[in-house]
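step 4 of 6: structure.
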Amino acid sequence: MPTLIPLLSIVSLSKSFGSLRVLEDISFNVQRGETVCLLGPSGSGKSTLLRCINWLERPDGGRVLLDSQPIGITSGGLVMSDQQLAQVRTRIGMVFQQFALWPHLTVLQNVMEAPVHVQRRPKDEVRAEAEALLRRVGLYDKRDAFPARLSGGQKQRVGIARALAMKPALMLFDEPTSALDPELVGEVLAVMRDLAREGMTMVVVTHEMAFAREAANRVVFMDRGVVVETGTPEQFFSAPGTERGRQFLQRYAEGRASLAA
Amino acid sequence: MMKDFATVWSERGLLLSGLGNTVLLSLLAALAGLALGALLSTLLMSPKRALAVPAKVFVDAARCTPFLLFAYIVYYGLPSLGLQFDAWSAGLLALTIYHSAYMAEILRAAWVTQPRAPIEAGLAFGYSGFGLFRRVVLPPLALSSAPVLGNQVIQIIKDSAFLTIITLPELTNAVNSIQSRHFIPFAAFVTAVLLYWALCLVVEAGVSAVGRLADARR
């Protein structure tokens, strides 16, 4: 197998909140074009891990490398200044559980905001791209609406378009469908499935097992702050390699059965 | 009595120039006070105690000082420290600084109730420092606190009347001249009250316009 430089490398990452150890010695790589789903029970540290990738949470130890460039630490080994960190973050798109749209801006303005004011790209060019992105997520007609007037599913599709407008090398999804009514989950997952198919590199924290099974190249199963196992979705869902993985899938299946009953 | 009001009307040039000064003074103090208050609110919200504590001390001290006394200090007190201003500059400075403390406290109170997520999104999308504040934090703050900020502007307009005692020729100063020249205190002062009231109605109309903008975004 040829040696590929991974787009994202996470090396021995650890994080504590006070005396509570939430991440312990986490390591894995994400190759270009790969979709990796982070799975695990609530409180297993998945979201914290995702937030450590772009340093929204500051890790206590370990390294995060994007294209072999360290995030959060300068080449001199110092913690990056806020400005340096901001610069690195423009290469990583993020989609939030609670949408986190900017309430004072219209849909189109939300998508154009950071490309124009952070990346300082020409406004006309950004507008054309933003409109194309809104067409793609099916919200061009809502471009002049404010976020408060949208459904959850629409908000999250704007959230995805907003992140894509930065032309990121990597997209992070933090439980993008967890705050949605069940009937709105599908429209968001459809957009994400398309992205994965088109070769966007994505790290997705999710509880949507069907999505992980279908769209992920790899799943990383976490429990109590450690990576318990990683593998292809086929491996993990049909024959988990660990007892904890098996129990997790069983509990999930039971949860679905009790919902159906 | 109607004759008294007619006398006030005959002095409309003086009245108008006083009103003009009051409007200009209040407008400038409101804008500068809001800008300064916004800056102060970032200090109040700073995790660095070396920034937050002095800002809090200033805001508390200013809010507990009667405005008249504050204006006295700027106009009569500062010259003994070598800082001399004409009445207009001293009045504007006093109004701006004094009310920036209130503006800062209003914005701070709104800030702590803002949802954290859009601000985090700002960070994740590459904003930092003042850019984050100006583009992401401040606009929703200003919209949601518009009614309270509007109240503060009304307070600025009323406090500007105190500046008559540092000889600033604003509206109260003008009607005082008129009443003493013609011995018509009632007509002169009532005229001023009606004009202040009219100014407040303008501010309230502005606030409800901003309120409609805010509602669309909520």
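step 5 of 6: annotate
 - The interface with chain B takes residues 54, 56, 82-83, 85-87, 89-90, 92, 94, 96, 98-105, 113-114, 117-119, 146-149, 162-163, 166 of chain A (CB under 8 Å).
 - Chain A has a mean pLDDT of 95.
step 6 of 6: archive
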